[in-house]
Structure formats: structure tokens, C-alpha cells
Structure of histidine kinase:
Amino acid sequence: MPLAVIRTQPFWAAVVASTSMLLALAPYGLFLLAGLPALLLCLYVQGLRGPRLPAALLPLPFLGYAVAGPGDRPVTVLVCLAALAAAATGLTRRALAEARAHSATERAIAETLQEHAARGERARIARELHDVVAHHISMIAVQAETARLTTEGMPPAGAERLLAIGDTARTALTEMRRLLGVLREDAGTPAAPQRRPQPGLQQLAELVDEAREASAAATRLIVSGPVRPLDQGVELTAYRIVQEALTNARRHAPGAAVDVALRYTPQGLHLSVRDNGPGPARAPARTGHGLTGMRERAAMVGGELSSGPAPGGGFRIEVLLPAPAADSPQETAV
């Protein structure tokens, strides 16, 4: 039988080969083994490429012939076992190939979703940092213009430099808006501006209260060190990290108590979020884009983030963010 027929029409090739073998088993017996490879190849290709049900049913006539048919019984049993093995091998290889393809598709979908989520998170970070940086650059432009217009006895060269500073600041704002537009397009987010003020550490108590009401679990905010205003970007980063950490705690450890701790140190702001849920058993679930987004936020202001099972149970997130030097600590709880 031509290989082209076996490849393109595996079912009919297997039917022809099986019928021929069955018809010839009784009169020819052992001599029929010469045609056995063609039969096995047809059954194997049918199992590998053809419909599954015919591939599983085609060897059954050989089984019936081996049990009740005439002729040389050992030869019949040998042909039956070989036919079953050929069809089973083809079906098994197909199942393994389909499982690998399905697994690869799932991985590709998961990676695409994670990348899309990461791009959206980066665009959100960029929008928030744009508001912070734009405020500072606007102040540079305003102060330069004010100094140029109100300073008495300003030399012409100094006035020109202040005018150049203001123009440069305004140009920087324009370029930042263009960059933000590119990030929005890349992440597929709408270009409408966000008009609400960006949150900071002053809003953490409200955030903790909302988390406590949403989960009906004990959620505390503990602050140590002299409370002082920090850079707006640092405060925004701390707020967003706490927000994401509380969301993760509700998702992965519903009902668990959560402590949010802020500690002002001479080196910076130390932030920790810890719950008392089943940490080690739950740790593999904490590897999504949420932690990645928190690490990116911390890194963008020069900070560091670590996470993992907490000693004694639960899950913890530790963050160090740069901040001005502080004095001796004091502790309060909300």
C-alpha cells in the first residue's frame, strides 16, 4: 500500500489492511506475517492522525477472531496483540502531542495576560509619577517667571537665563505629556486625564478602615517614628503598595488579620504588611503581577521590596523607601 495513501487517508487504509488481514488469516496463517508491517503502520497512523473512535475500534475484529475464529491460534493472537499495540501507540502519541500543545497554549495565554497587566500597571505608575513630576516642573517655571518679573535690578543676562529656565520647564511638561500618551496607547488605556488628587500617607488610615470593613477582619495601621511629610512620589508609592498588599491579603487569605506598619528611620521609610493566614502553603499563589507591580513601584523611587512567608505563619511584604533623616521614634496604632 502506498505511503501517500496511508498518510492522507489513514482510516480507509487501515480498513483495507484490516479486512485483508482478517480474510487471509484462516487460509494462510503464518505466511500472512509478511503483510503485518503494513497493517501495523496503517493502524498506527490512524491512531496518530485519524479520528479517535475508529482507531480504537479497528483492532477489535482481530480480538474477536483470536477468541472465536478458525486458523492458527498463536498467529491470530500475535496479529491481534500487534494491532492493539499499534493503534494504542498512535493514540498515545497523539494524546501526548495534544497535551503539550495545550500546555504551550496555556503558557502563552498566561504570559500574554501577565504582560498586558504589567504594561497597564506601568502606564498607571507613569500617570501617577507624571502628576508628581509635572507639579515640580510647573513650580520651577512659575518661580523662574516670578523671579524674572519681580527681582529689582535684574541684569539682562540673568533675566534671559530665567526666561530660558521657564521655557525649558514648559517644554519638559509638553514632552512628558507626549510620553504619557505613548504609554497609554501601548497599554491600551484611555487617554482621559486623572483629575483626582493623588493619595499619600495621610490617606492610609482611611484605606485601612476600608479594608477592615470589607473583610470584617482585624486590620491595623501602626506608625513609629516622628510623622513628617515626605516627597510626594514616595508617599504615593507607599500608598499604592499598601493598597495592593491589602488586596492580595483579602484575595489569598480571606478573614486573616493584617498589620500595616510604617517606621521612619534615618535611612528612609520602612513599610511592612503582614497577615496571619497560612503563609507557606499559600506562597506559590503570591507570584502574580501584583508583586511585580509593587517591586516596580518601589524601584522607581529607589526603594527595595522583599516578600515571602512570615516567621510563625502568614505572609509578609517588606519595603524600604528613601526618605529624609528622622529623629527618635514614637509609636501609635490606628
In short: The beta strands are 219-224, 258-264, 268-275, 304-309, 315-322, 331-333.
